[in-house]
Structure formats: structure tokens, C-alpha cells
Design goal:
heteropentamer, A mainly alpha, B mainly alpha, C mainly alpha, D alpha+beta, E mainly alpha, A: mainly alpha, 27 helices, D: Alpha-Beta Plaits, three-stranded mixed sheet
């Protein structure tokens, strides 16, 4: 059964409807919102599968169904829905992981009194995300983009009674808002430049070839192509949302929200929205490739930022003591990888890695959640340890996830998707920096993941939470197992010799080459992974820490470096110092202006009006009135005289009428008044 | 008689009156013909209705007698035939007393105007196929214009007698007449609506012919027609101060009502006017509802048209007398309540009914039965509802006796 | 003096009689009767013009019909006022109804 | 239904009208002057004097002018003068017997007290006269009417009276015969006390 | 001009002036009725039968009754008898007559001067059907409006004339409700 483009809107609509149960149900409602959310997700999943089936029937075609939103004057604003393999795969991904996370959180949040509201927010988020995926219009995408931002704010700040969570939610919202500003300017500029809000509108859409040719050919004063400028602006939005280098600070703090939220939003879906945006508008980004005259290409910017972020994320992840923050920084670095892949021109590899990463990162987060739940909310690595024996399934699935993340060869999906990126980066002609960063990233990723696994699961339980931990209930283990299977199996969809996924995404042919051709790169990356694991074992495996307060082995060998990394390179402080203070000063200036300059003017105006009023009264009282009074007196006198004429006798009136009639008649007939 | 040409095709009886008229006119010069013919018409009318008045009084007293198991006047002439002339002589010889400070002019003018007005109404009634005094386009309106003026004479009678009681009685009589003029006129409107014209000859012509050979097209034989006929007759009864509505000159009421101060010939004139009024209204009823001079059945056409008119007229007058013999008198408030709360609504509903009837004239076959059924329901249902709501309280008097 | 002129003369005479009555008589009812007479004079005019005018147009007659109807209503209301006046002032002299004055 | 009462009323009058033509007990009018009303037997009007023979009513009056009725009559409207022959001997017949019908209230007391059944109540009601005083005073000759007339107007009473008179006469004759026999028988014995004369001579019917 | 017209005109003028002059209100009302009858005759003479008869019905039948009832209901005069020219009002009479003269002075010459398009020969014929079509056709709205005017004015007249307050009501009639007036004190 395939879903046609015109029914695409059903996919976001069902979870939105389900969210109503959560949002508007009474505060303590439980079963109705949960059931609603789950039902919504199952329905959305079914529809997404149908949509995907529909898209895969002919991957090359982009089925669109547009509708007129409203007309102002001569113009009508038309929005629409777009169904192509990219949207299909992403919808299935979001709904599947959403469903698994929802099942997980029914167990994880079972003690939380406001679980109903949580599921409401969750459904709202999934609805917004799906809306973003299937839209054919950048404006509608922006609308869903904002909704997703709202949902993430609500979910991060779910336990609003904790100040840290509230601050984190605000921080996430503001930083993504800064990114969205760039996105908005790009959106408006694109709409103004192309005249249409739709991506593909039979040739007249923003991303159709003729318009792109027009965009890239028109140059800005600085020699830049318009498409480059718009592309970069859109990338700023994507960077904000996907936590790229300058705007990544909010992602680690977003860990304050409940773990399923982190799993779904800050690992799999929302942060991937930026990458999806780049994939969607890739033709625009790549429009200026061919032009040699253009000084700077959008994609080079993306690639550079991607590489820097990948490296930064990996480096910072090494020195974190909170299990979720390690994974957060890992997500930042992996997103860097995806942006790097887009930067080097292969958005298909980026999407492939996005899909695989979504599954195993969700697995890792849920595993961490299971650990936190079991150890009664113990998140600090220093007080964990020795959980492998107690939590077998969690340990097994977590290990599989780690393998996929690190990219252990051949078996795990991470390996193939990272391989594709590195392959693409290798072939990038502009510079080799991204490729080098990618390789270093692989090593660091392997290192901090082995550290994490060793610290949490091996050694001796260093906290009493870890000491009494038991395996978490079936509802949590189920999703872990499913995700583990996906983490392993998904890789085989995109093998170099059987690129099923890539051909579908590309919609056309994808170069099929044997394993041998990229074999060299595979050997190098495997070696790097092993190097990382070895280093990780060296510092953390060899001598297991027994005491929670013991110094971190890495800190012992490079105290300065470790301190810097633990402090997150003091980026937050840097921001606070620069941007924070600048705004504060700006606010003070505005306050001064407001009170003294405008306030003063209003005050002055008020006072002058008052004085004028007094002067007027004075003049009026003794000046004019005297004059008027006697004239009116005079008038009243004559009025009284005339009143006497009104005798009240009907017949006298009639007489006057009759005589008047006669006189007028005579005048008219004979007075010559022709 | 209008100077219509004399069709030769009909039986000689039919045209006998016309031939007689032509013969008479022949004696006079051409120039005087128009005045002669109108004078002749007047003479015939006054003569015929005068005689009829005379024998109507006799018939009334004979019939009332018979109904009350007594012979009625039979002393004068064989079985009382000369009685009317005896009355006339009595009326003439009786002394005519006029109150001292009565308004002599008005006192004399009242009876005369009443009789005149009652008579002029007869001018437009078609007595036979060619026997109509004046062929008017707005004949019905003319008839009721004449009828409306009679109230004036009653007021004059009441006022001119300078007698408190007669003035009060005149006022009550006027109230009655005015209350009943409305339903009278309203009950005529349906006939005009269906016939589509105000001229009496056309209305009678419209009632010609027989449906299915035996059922004449008379208006009375249609549901709305019968209802309108009943309303018209009730209103006519009241309009001519007869039987249940004879409040004005009833002995038990204010002496003789507005006729208290009248005696002798003026009193007789008032009675003559009453009978003329009754005859005129009955004649109009015959014209409008009973198909004027139309014969009830096809083969009865052999009898001349004016015979049928006379038969129906006499039947109606007998009905008047019959009603007078039967019904007790109505009190003034009952009388006006009957008019305003029962007759007027029924007449208005009947108007709608007639409109429906005329609109569905084209229906034929089974639809005809439907048309009849709807029209019948439109008469019966309001009648039942209205009578139940208005007269629910009435019924046989319940006597409460002191506990023994 | 064509017949039309005669008719107009008659209606003028009637009109002036009515007007004189209205202006001279003291009794309210008589004033109303005067007005009634003036109305009738006007009606006569209409019919005269209908009878002798260029013809072809019957609105004159229709106008007279409406004017008769409205005059009847006016008479009824006028006399009701007189009766009401009489109930409060016990007289129907126009002089009694002069409260509405300056 | 409002009309039902009216129709029933009309039906009653109609039935009456039709009935009056063929139903005898409906149309009961007697056209008086031509058809005399069948007076009920007990009807009485003013008294009259019963005479035995039609050819000489005044001569054969039963009344003996005993003036009982004159005395008993409450309004005193009877005036009797005894008929005396030239010698003043009572002829046992009234010379003058006047009844003032304007006064008589036909109470029938005179009939009840009259021992000789001489005065009876008459049924003549057409007594209108054109003169107020004298015409209403009925004299003897106007009052005298034969016994046969009495039989016509009061048949039962007349028969009863005659039967009684006959019986009395027969008793008187037997007594007379007995007296005569006794007298004959006693003729022989000395004449006994004289028998007082039996009262009225009973003229043969 | 035909004899009939002159006769009718004479009747109208004489009765109208008599009506306006007469001292007895009833006489003036009845004389005016005669004028109306004269006018109805004039309409008939002019050939407008329908108008003549409606004038007869409305005026002679209806308005005369209303006038006479009004006259009778306002009999209890408190003050001066109905004098034609009261001494106090001589000025009013003169002024009134002057005004009338002026109006007449305007109308009559205007009539004489005005160029009147005349049509000789018999007058137009007007059948009831023609009037019906006119009333139901172009003048339908006017008919409805007149209907409304009549209803409203008559109800208003009724309200004005009918005694509403308790003490005005005659004893036996307590608003026709049949309620016994004995228990007047109970709150209505």
C-alpha cells in the first residue's frame, strides 16, 4: 500500500493529534496521553513505511502536492508536501526511533507524576520533526524547525523545578535561536530572489535547476554568488540546530533533560535536522561549485566547520566525567563528520552516516539511561563501575553500540558509514585538512568510548548506587535489543559493492566498486581504531580505579591538558566574556536612552501641554466669555419674543400656512420667477 | 331591463317578459325609451318585491303558526290571504305620533331612506337569464355600498326620536350591524375571487353547467362555497336584524329599540325595509352561492330561468322564517363575540381556502378528490378548533339546588 | 368654460368651503369634517382629470382609491384624538388644546 | 360541535311543522267561531232554571220560589219574587227570578242548596252584550231552559237527578198508596191524625 | 354640460356649505354624508364606478359612523353652546375667511390660465379587472402599505379612544373578562 504525496500531511498530523491528549489532558492524566502518544507514533510509523514504499517505487521522481495557504493582493503564498526517498527514509527513522524511545520512557519515567505531559511534548516534537521532513517549502520547513526548537526547550526543561534544567533549556533555545536568525535571513532572501516558497514547483521552485542557475550567476558586490551567501546563511541555521562549532555549547548542557529525551532528540533526530536541511538544499549549496570566478564556495565553509567540530567534539569528550556528557560531545563530533561529508560534496554519505549514527547513538543513550535508572540516577563515571556482571543485557547492547560508534571493521554499521565519509573526504580536491581531522577523530572516538566502557562496566563498583544496581525491566531492555540489531545490521544497506541505500537516495546510479578499491583506507582506519582502543585500555584498563575520588589516570599523565579539556576549553566562559558582556553593555545603553532621552522628551511634552492649558483658561475666562455672555443674553431675549408667536392655537398656524401658500403660489404663477 | 337583444332560440316562456317589455316600449317614442325602460324596471321590481313583502309577512305568520301548532291568520280572506292588505290598511289608518321635540326632518327621513336603500340594492341582481335591471361591472360592490348606508338610517331613527332608550338601542343596533358587515363582505370575497369578477351576471354564468351530468357548478356545492354561504347567511341574518339577532326591535329589550317613537305607516315602512333588506340579501345569496337562475339539473332547463331564481329565493326566505321559529335571541356581547371571534376568522380562512381552490382549478381525475379533501379539511378543521376554543364553556345549564 | 374647468371650479369651491370651516369653526369635530371635505375635493380633481385628461393612464383612479382609504384611517385617528381630548378636558373646543406652545 | 344544538332545534321545529299537518294531537287548534269547543262536562258558567216542558218553559219551572238560593248566594245576585195569585196565595212559582250575571261568581252554591233541583249551572259562555248594565241582568224567561237541554249539557248529572226524582216519586206514590191503604184500612177505624202533605208535586217527566 | 353634473354639483356645494355652517353637529355630519353621496354620484357620472361605490362604502358606510359615534361620545359639553361666530373669536373668523379668500384668489385664476389638454368625447372606460390588475401589479406595494397604515392607525385610534383606566370603565364591564368586580381590592 503506498501513500500518495497529497496524503503526506497525515504523517505529521497523527502525532500532532496525539499530542493534544498530553498537552490538554488534566495534569495528572497518565494512561490517556501515553496511549495516545504510542498510538500516534505507531500510526505515523505505518504511514511513513507506506510513504517510503511509495517513494522507492521510482526513486528519481519527486512527488509534490502543493496548496495555496493564503493570497494577499495579486500573489498567493503556496506551500506543499514533497515525497522522495530522502524524506521517506528520514520519516521511518524518526518514527521508529521515536516509538522505541516512547516505549523506553514509559518504563523510565514511570514514577514521574507529569508523565502525561512528557508524552504530550514527545508527540508534539515527533509531529514537528515529521512536518519538517515531508515539506516541499522552505517556509513550512522553517515553521516546523521552530516547533522542533520549542519541543526541545520543553523537553530539556521538563524537570523545570531544577534550576540547572531550566537554565539549560533557555540556553539551548537561545543558541538555536541565534542560528535560526541566519536561517530566517537566508529564507527571506531566497524567497525574494526566487519568488517562490516551494522547493520543487515544476521548474519554478527554489531548488529547480533554472532558478539555481539564475541565483548562482547573479553576483554580489563582493564577487560572491547569491546562492553561496544564501547557502551559508542556511548553514548558520543548521549549525545552530546541529550543534556545530561556534553554536555547539548548548548540546552538552541539554543533557539536563530526561535521558529518553537526550536519546531521541539530542542524538537521533533533532540534531540531525540540520544535516537533513543541508541534504535537502544541497543543490543550492552546490550551485556555485562550477563557477571558478567565485572566491569562496559554500561547501568549503561547511566542510571546514564540520572538520573543526568533529575534532573539537572528540577532544572534549575525552575528559568528561558525566556519562551523558561524553555521549553528547560524541554526538557533536559525529555531526561534525556529517557536515564534513556534505562539505566535501557527498550528502548521500552524510545521510547514510546520519541514519546509522541515529540508531547506535540512540542505543548508547538508552543504555546510559538504563544504567542511570539502575543506579538510582548516578551519572558520574567516577562513582560507577563493575556493572557488566549485574546488567548483562545493557552491557551487551552498550558494547555493540560502542563498536558501531567506533567503527569496528566490517560487522558494525558505523564502520561502513564512516568509511564512506572518509572515502569522500579523501577524494576532496580543495584541501586534505578534513580528511586528516577525520582520521584523528576516529582515534579519539575509539579512545573515549573504550574509557567510557571500562569506567562504567569494568572494574569495581565505586559508588553505592553502582553496588546495588540490577538489570532494568523488560520494557527498557526490549528497545535496547532492537536498536542493537539495527546498529549492527544497518551497515549492510550501504556496502560499497551493494550500495542499495545510496542508489535509492541519489535517485539515480551510484558507482559500484568492489571491496578492493577502497581497501587501503579501510585498513588504515581499522588500525587507527585499534590504536585508540589500546590507548584507552592503557590508561583506564590496566589499572582499574577503586576509589571514586582517585585522580583520573589521564590527568595524572597530562594534568594541564586534562584540566583544559575538563573545563571544555573554557568556551562558555569565553562566550560569557565576549558576547555576554557586549549585550549587557548594549542593554545598559538602551536603558539610559529609554529613561533619559525618550522619557525626558515625553515629560517635557506633558508639562508644556499643561502650561498651554492654563494660559488658555485664563484668556478664555476673563477675555472672551464676557463678550459671549451678553450676546447670548441678547439672543435669549429675542428668542423669548419670537416664542410668543407660537400660540398653541392650531388654527392660527393653519392660517399662516394658507396665506403663505397663496403668496408663494402667486409669486410662482405671476411673479415671473421662471 | 337592459335592452339586450332577444335571442329566439330559447323557449317562449323564457323570453316572454322581454317581449312584453318591447311591446310596451313600442307604444312610446324612441327618445323616451331609456327612461321608460328604467321606470318599467323599477315598477316591476317594486311591484314584485312589494307583493312578495306582503305575502312574506303572511307566510311568516302562517309558518310560525304552523310550527307552533296553530293555524296562523285565517280570518281575512281564504286562509288569511288578505291579511297583508288588512295590515296595510291598519298601518295606514293608525295615528302617526311624532314626539314633540323630535327632529321632525330626520324622524321622517329615516324610514324612507331605509326602504329606499334596501330597494336600490335589488337593481343589480339577475332574476333571469336576461332579467337584470342594470348590468354593472362592479355590481357586488354597488350592492354592498347600498347595504352599508342602511346603518345611517338606523342612526337617524335612533337620534331623531330624542329618546334616551332609542338612541342607546340605535347604538347597539349599529354595533351589531357594523360587527356583521365585516363577515358579510369577507364571506363574499371568496366568490369574487373564484369567479374572478364583481359583476353578478358573470358570477351566475360562472355557476352554469353540471359536473358529471348531475352535480351543478353552484358555489354552494363546494366546501369553501358552503362555508362562505353559511357565513353569509348568518351575517345576512344579523344584517337584516332577523331571528337570533333581532335585538334592536325585540320586545324584551329596550322597548322597541330605535323604533320606539315610531307608529303608523312609518313603523310599517321600517318593517317593509327590513323585509326588503332580507329579500335583497337572500337574492344576493342566491346569485352568489346558489347559482342565480341556473337550473339544478340539465333536463330541468325546460322551466324558465326566473322560476328557478324565485324558487331558490323563496326557499331561502322560508329558511329565514324557519330559523326565526327556532332560535332564542342572542345577548349583545354574545352577538358581537360571535361576529368578531368566530365569523371573521372563519371568513378569512375561507378566503385562503378559495384561493387554494381557484389555484388548483386545473387538477383533474384523482387530483380532483385530493382538491376536494383538502378544501373540506380547510373548512372543517378550523371550524372544530375555533368552536371548541371559543364556545367550550357553553353547554346545557347545570342547576345547583340548595342542599335539602 | 370647458367641462374640465367646471369640475375644477367645483372642487375648488368645495376645497375653499372646507378650508373656511377649518379656519373658522371652533369645534374640533367640525374642523376634522372640514379637512375631510378638503380631501374629497382633491379626489374630485383626480377623477376630473382622469375623465377629461389626455387619458390612457388610470393612476388617477388608483390614487383616489388609496386616498379614500387613508382619509378613512385619518378620520378615525382624528376622532379618537378628539374623544381622548374630551375625556381629559370635557370639551372639544380647539381652544382647549393649546398646551403645546412656546 | 357548535352547530349540533342549532340543527337539533331546527329538526324539532321542522318535525313540528310537518306533524301539524297530519298528526291530530299536534294541530289542536279549534277554529272557535265556526267550531264550538267541546266543553268538559263539569264546566259551569252561570245558573239557569230547569223547566220540565219545552213548549211552556215558564209554566213548568221546577222552581217554587222558596228563596233558599237567594239567601244562600254569597254575592246575593239572585232576586226572587214569589208568584201570587190575585188573592195573595203563593202559586209556588217565581214571578220574578233575576240573576245579575255581572255579580254572579258561578260558585254553584245555589245548585247545591236547591231542594227541588230547579237551578243548574249552564255552559253558555258567549254572553258578551253591548250594554253594560241591564243586559247583564238575566230575567226569568232568559234563565228558563228545558230539562232536555240540561241532559245535553250535563248528561250524567241530569240522569242522576232524574233517577233520584223518579225514585222519590215512586217512594211518594208507594207511601201515598200505603197511606191510602192505611187510610182505607183506618177508614174504618176513626180517622187518625191527618198525614202531613208530602212535599213537592212530582210532575211527570 | 349635462344636467346630471350640474344637479350633483349643486347638491354637493349646498350640502357642504350647509354642513359647515350649521350649529347642530349631528346635522352638519349628516349633511356632509349627503355631500359624500353627491360626490359618489359625481364619480359615477364621470364613469369611475368602482371609485364611486368604494366612496359610498368607505365614507357613507364607515367614516360617517365614526363621526357620528365621536359626536355622540363627546356630548357632555361643559362650556358654551356651539355658536357659529363666538364674540371672542371675531378676529379669528375674519382672518380665517381672508386666508380662504387668498387661497381662492390663487386657485381660480390659476385654473383659468392653465393650458389644460382636453379630450373630447366619452370618458375612458375602467373595468374592475383593469383596476385589479393595476392594484396587484404596479401598485401592489402601495396596497400593502395602505393595509399597514389602516391597521396601525385603527389600533392607535382604538387605544386613544378606549378608556383604559379603571375608573373610566363602565361598571358592568371589567375589561370583558367576566371577572366579578366585587373583589376589586385583591391585587390584579
Amino acid at each position: 500500500m503506498t501513500l500518495s504525496a497529497s496524503l503526506l500531511w497525515l504523517i505529521p498530523a497523527t502525532p500532532l493529534a496525539a499530542s493534544v491528549f498530553g498537552l490538554f489532558a488534566p495534569r495528572t492524566a497518565r494512561t490517556l496521553p501515553i496511549a495516545g502518544a504510542l498510538l500516534g507514533l505507531v500510526a505515523a510509523l505505518g504511514l511513513s513505511v507506506a510513504a517510503l514504499a511509495g517513494a522507492l517505487v521510482d526513486p528519481a521522481v519527486r512527488a509534490t502536492s502543493d496548496f495555496a495557504w493564503f493570497t494577499f493582493g495579486a500573489q498567493t503564498l503556496r506551500l506543499g508536501w514533497l515525497l522522495d526517498p530522502l524524506a521517506g527514509f528520514m520519516c521511518v527513522l524518526v518514527t521508529l526511533i521515536g516509538l522505541l524511545v516512547a516505549l523506553f520512557s514509559t518504563a523510565y519515567l514511570r514514577h514521574d507524576p507529569r508523565i502525561g505531559r512528557f508524552f504530550g511534548f514527545l508527540s508534539l516534537f515527533v509531529a514537528a520533526m515529521l512536518g519538517l521532513l515531508v515539506t516541499n517549502s522552505l517556509l513550512l520547513l522553517f515553521i516546523c524547525w521552530e516547533l522542533v526548537g520549542l519541543a526541545s526547550y520543553l523537553l530539556i526543561g521538563f524537570w523545570y523545578e531544577r534550576p540547572a534544567a531550566a537554565a539549560a533549556a533557555k540556553k539551548a533555545f537561545i543558541t538555536t535561536r541565534i542560528g535560526d536568525l541566519g536561517f530566517l535571513i537566508g529564507l527571506v532572501w531566497l524567497h525574494q530572489a526566487t519568488g517562490s516558497a516551494l522547493f520543487h514547483d515544476g521548474g519554478a521552485g527554489a531548488l529547480d535547476a533554472p532558478t539555481l542557475a539564475r541565483l548562482s550567476s547573479t553576483l554580489l558586490p563582493g564577487g560572491w554568488a547569491v546562492s553561496t551567501a544564501i547557502g551559508l546563511l542556511l548553514f548558520v541555521g543548521a549549525a545552530g540546530k546541529s550543534g556545530q562549532f561556534p553554536l555547539h555549547v548548548w548540546l552538552p548542557d541539554a543533557m539536563e533533560g530526561p535521558t529518553p529525551v537526550s536519546a531521541l532528540i539530542h542524538a537521533a533526530t533533532m540534531v540531525a535536522a540540520g544535516v537533513f536541511l543541508m541534504a535537502r538544499v544541497f543543490p543550492l549549496m552546490a550551485a556555485d561549485q562550477g563557477l571558478a570566478t567565485v572566491p569562496f564556495h559554500a561547501l568549503t565553509g561547511v566542510a571546514v566547520i564540520g572538520a573543526v567540530t568533529a575534532l573539537l567534539g572528540a577532544v572534549l569528550a575525552v575528559a568528561q566525567n558525566d556519562i551523558k556528557r561524553v555521549l553528547a560531545y560524541s554526538t557533536v563530533s559525529q555531526l561534525g563528520y556529517m557536515m564534513l561529508a556534505i562539505g566535501v560534496g557527498s550528502w548521500v554519505a552524510a545521510v547514510f552516516h546520519l541514519i546509522t549514527h541515529a540508531f547506535f547513538k540512540a542505543l548508547l543513550f538508552l543504555g546510559a539511561g538504563s544504567v542511570i535508572d539502575a543506579t538510582h540516577h548516578e551519572q558520574d563515571l567516577r562513582r560507577l563501575g563493575g556493572l557488566a556482571g549485574r546488567m548483562r543485557v545493557t552491557f551487551a547492547t552498550f558494547a555493540l553500540g560502542t563498536g558501531a560508534l567506533m567503527g569496528l571493521p566490517f560487522v558494525f554499521s558505523g564502520f561502513w558509514s564512516k568509511e564512506a565519509i572518509l572515502h569522500a573526504a579523501e577524494g576532496w580536491t580543495v584541501s586534505h585538512l578534513p580528511f586528516a581531522a577525520g582520521l584523528v577523530g576516529v582515534v579519539l572516538t575509539a579512545f573515549y568510548m573504550t574509557r567510557l566502557v571500562l569506567e562504567v562496566f569494568f572494574g569495581k563498583a565505586r559508588g553505592e548506587g553502582a553496588a546495588h544496581a540490577e538489570e532494568s525491566p523488560g520494557l527498557m531492555r526490549g528497545p535496547l535489543v532492537v536498536l542493537a540489531v539495527a546498529a549492527v545490521g544497518l551497515g549492510w544497506l550501504g556496502l560499497p559493492n551493494w550500495p542499495w541505500l545510496q542508489t535509492r537516495l541519489q535517485g539515480g546510479d551510484w558507482p559500484v566498486h568492489g571491496l578492493g578499491e577502497g581497501f587501503g583506507l579501510m585498513v588504515v582506519s581499522t588500525a587507527l581504531v585499534l590504536l585508540g582502543i589500546g590507548a584507552g585500555w592503557w590508561w583506564y584498563g590496566r589499572v582499574k580505579r577503586t576509589d571514586a575520588r582517585a585522580l583520573d589516570p589521564l590527568a595524572r599523565s597530562w594534568p594541564a591538558v586534562h584540566a583544559a579539556l575538563a573545563g571544555r576549553l573554557w568556551l562558555d566562559e569565553l562566550y560569557a566574556a565576549t558576547v555576554g558582556r557586549a549585550f549587557a553593555m548594549l542593554a545598559r545603553v538602551a536603558a539610559f536612552f529609554d529613561r533619559w532621552v525618550w522619557g525626558g522628551a515625553v515629560e517635557a511634552a506633558g508639562r508644556t501641554a499643561e502650561t498651554v492649558g492654563q494660559v488658555n483658561r485664563a484668556v478664555d475666562e476673563d477675555g472672551l466669555n464676557a463678550g459671549f455672555d451678553n450676546t447670548s443674553e441678547h439672543l435669549r431675549g429675542s428668542g423669548r419674543r419670537y416664542a410668543k408667536a407660537q400660540t398653541g392655537d392650531a388654527q392660527s398656524y393653519l392660517r399662516v400656512v394658507a396665506i403663505g401658500l397663496a403668496v408663494v403660489g402667486v409669486l410662482l404663477l405671476w411673479g415671473g420667477v421662471r | 331591463m337592459t335592452t339586450t337583444s332577444v335571442p329566439s332560440s330559447e323557449s317562449w316562456l323564457e323570453v316572454a317578459p322581454l317581449q312584453a317589455r318591447d311591446a310596451l316600449l313600442g307604444l312610446l317614442p324612441e327618445s323616451l325609451h331609456w327612461i321608460a325602460s328604467s321606470v318599467l324596471a323599477i315598477a316591476v321590481l317594486v311591484g314584485a318585491f312589494g307583493l312578495m313583502f306582503a305575502y312574506l309577512t303572511l307566510a311568516e305568520r302562517k309558518l310560525l303558526g304552523r310550527i307552533q301548532n296553530r293555524p296562523g291568520p285565517n280570518r281575512t280572506g281564504w286562509a288569511g290571504l288578505l291579511q297583508p292588505f288588512a295590515d296595510a290598511v291598519k298601518a295606514l289608518t293608525k295615528e302617526d305620533i311624532v314626539p314633540r321635540d323630535a327632529d321632525k326632518v330626520l324622524h321622517a327621513l329615516a324610514p324612507v331612506s331605509l326602504v329606499a336603500l334596501s330597494l336600490i340594492g335589488l337593481a343589480v341582481i339577475p332574476f333571469g337569464r336576461h332579467l337584470v335591471a342594470i348590468e354593472l361591472d362592479a355590481a357586488v360592490l354597488y350592492f354592498f355600498a347600498a347595504g352599508a348606508a342602511t346603518e345611517l338610517s338606523i342612526f337617524m331613527a335612533g337620534w331623531a326620536s330624542r329618546n334616551k332608550y332609542s338612541l342607546l338601542a340605535a347604538m347597539r343596533a349599529l354595533a351589531q350591524l357594523i360587527s356583521y358587515e365585516v363577515p358579510l363582505l369577507l364571506s363574499v370575497v371568496p366568490v369574487v375571487l373564484v369567479a374572478g369578477t364583481l359583476s353578478t351576471t358573470a358570477i351566475v354564468a360562472a355557476q352554469g353547467g353540471w359536473a358529471a351530468g348531475f352535480w351543478p357548478h353552484w358555489h354552494v356545492l363546494t366546501p369553501w362555497g358552503f362555508s362562505a354561504f353559511c357565513l353569509f347567511m348568518i351575517a345576512a341574518l344579523a344584517e337584516s336584524n332577523r331571528s337570533p339577532f333581532d335585538l334592536p326591535e325585540a320586545e324584551s329589550e329596550l322597548i322597541a329599540g330605535h323604533l320606539t317613537e315610531y307608529s303608523g305607516f312609518k313603523y310599517a315602512l321600517f318593517f317593509m325595509a327590513e323585509y326588503f333588506g332580507m329579500a335583497a340579501l337572500s337574492a344576493m345569496a342566491v346569485t352568489l352561492f346558489l347559482g342565480g337562475w341556473q337550473a339544478p339539473l340539465g333536463w330541468l332547463e325546460v322551466l324558465p330561468s326566473y322560476v328557478w331564481f324565485a324558487a331558490k329565493l323563496l326557499a331561502l326566505l322560508a329558511g329565514f322564517i324557519w330559523i326565526r321559529a327556532t332560535f332564542p335571541r342572542l345577548r349583545i356581547d354574545q352577538l358581537t363575540r360571535l361576529a368578531w371571534k368566530f365569523l371573521v376568522p372563519m371568513a378569512l380562512l375561507n378566503l385562503a381556502n378559495a384561493a387554494f381552490w381557484s389555484l388548483t382549478a386545473g387538477w383533474s381525475g384523482p387530483l380532483q378528490a385530493v382538491r376536494w379533501a383538502v378544501s373540506l379539511a380547510a373548512v372543517v378543521v378550523p371550524f372544530l378548533l375555533l368552536s371548541r376554543s371559543l364556545f367550550s364553556g357553553l353547554g346545557p345549564r347545570v342547576y345547583r339546588y340548595a342542599p335539602s | 368654460m370647458s367641462p374640465l374647468h367646471l369640475c375644477l371650479l367645483l372642487s375648488t369651491v368645495l376645497f375653499c368651503i372646507g378650508l373656511a370651516a377649518v379656519l373658522v369653526r371652533t369645534s374640533a369635530i367640525l374642523v376634522l369634517l372640514g379637512v375631510e371635505l378638503m380631501l374629497n375635493a382633491a379626489n374630485l380633481n383626480f377623477i376630473a382629470f382622469w375623465r377629461y385628461g389626455p387619458g390612457g393612464d388610470d393612476t388617477g383612479v388608483i390614487f383616489v382609491l388609496f386616498s379614500i382609504a387613508v382619509a378613512a384611517a385619518e378620520a378615525a385617528v382624528g376622532l379618537a384624538l378628539v374623544i381622548a381630548l374630551h375625556r381629559h378636558r370635557r370639551t372639544i373646543a380647539l381652544k382647549a388644546a393649546n398646551q403645546l406652545r412656546g | 360541535m357548535i352547530g349540533k344544538g342549532l340543527l337539533q332545534g331546527l329538526a324539532v321545529t321542522a318535525r313540528n311543522l310537518v306533524g301539524s299537518y297530519h298528526d291530530p294531537d299536534r294541530y289542536t287548534t279549534i277554529e272557535y267561531p265556526e267550531v264550538k269547543p267541546a266543553l268538559p262536562e263539569a264546566y259551569r258558567n252561570f245558573p239557569f232554571l230547569v223547566a220540565e216542558k219545552a213548549e211552556d218553559p215558564l209554566g213548568t219551572l221546577r222552581c217554587v220560589a222558596c228563596q233558599i238560593c237567594e239567601k244562600e248566594c254569597p254575592p246575593q245576585c239572585i232576586y226572587i219574587v214569589m208568584d201570587r195569585d190575585e188573592k195573595g196565595k203563593a202559586r209556588m212559582k217565581p214571578k220574578v227570578f233575576d240573576i245579575d250575571t255581572s255579580v254572579c261568581m258561578s260558585c254553584q252554591i245555589c245548585v247545591e242548596v236547591c231542594p227541588f233541583d230547579a237551578i243548574k249551572m249552564d255552559q253558555v259562555f258567549e254572553i258578551a252584550t253591548d250594554e253594560r248594565f241591564n243586559a247583564l241582568l238575566l230575567h226569568r224567561d232568559q234563565l228558563a231552559k228545558t230539562n232536555t237541554y240540561f241532559h245535553q249539557i250535563h248528561p250524567t248529572e241530569a240522569a242522576e237527578v232524574d233517577a233520584r226524582l223518579a225514585a222519590e216519586k215512586k217512594a211518594a206514590e208507594e207511601k201515598a198508596k200505603a197511606a191510602a191503604a192505611a187510610k182505607a184500612a183506618s177508614a174504618k177505624p176513626a180517622p187518625a191524625a191527618p198525614a202531613n202533605p208530602t212535599p213537592p208535586p212530582a210532575p211527570a217527566p | 354640460m349635462s344636467l346630471a353634473f350640474l344637479a350633483l354639483a349643486l347638491v354637493c356645494v349646498v350640502t357642504a356649505s350647509a354642513a359647515m355652517i350649521s350649529r347642530n353637529l349631528i346635522h352638519s355630519a349628516l349633511l356632509l354624508v349627503l355631500t359624500w353621496i353627491g360626490l359618489a354620484g359625481l364619480y359615477l357620472w364621470a364613469g369611475a364606478d368602482f371609485v364611486g361605490f368604494s366612496q359610498a362604502i368607505v365614507y357613507v358606510g364607515g367614516v360617517s359612523m365614526v363621526v357620528l359615534f365621536a359626536v355622540l361620545l363627546t356630548r357632555r359639553q361643559r362650556d358654551e353652546p356651539l355658536v357659529l361666530i363666538p364674540e371672542a373669536g371675531v378676529g379669528r373668523v375674519v382672518a380665517g375667511l381672508a386666508a380662504t379668500f387668498w387661497v381662492a384668489a390663487l386657485l381660480v385664476p390659476a385654473m383659468v390660465v392653465a393650458p389644460l389638454v382636453q379630450r373630447a368625447g366619452p370618458g375612458p372606460t375602467l373595468t374592475v379587472k383593469r383596476i385589479g390588475e393595476l392594484l396587484a401589479g404596479p401598485h401592489l406595494v402601495a396596497v400593502l402599505v395602505v393595509g399597514v397604515i389602516l391597521t396601525v392607525s385603527l389600533i392607535g385610534a382604538l387605544y386613544l379612544a378606549a378608556p383604559v383606566t379603571a375608573e373610566d370603565q363602565p361598571e358592568w364591564d371589567n375589561g370583558g373578562t367576566g371577572r366579578d368586580r366585587g373583589n376589586q381590592e385583591e391585587p390584579s
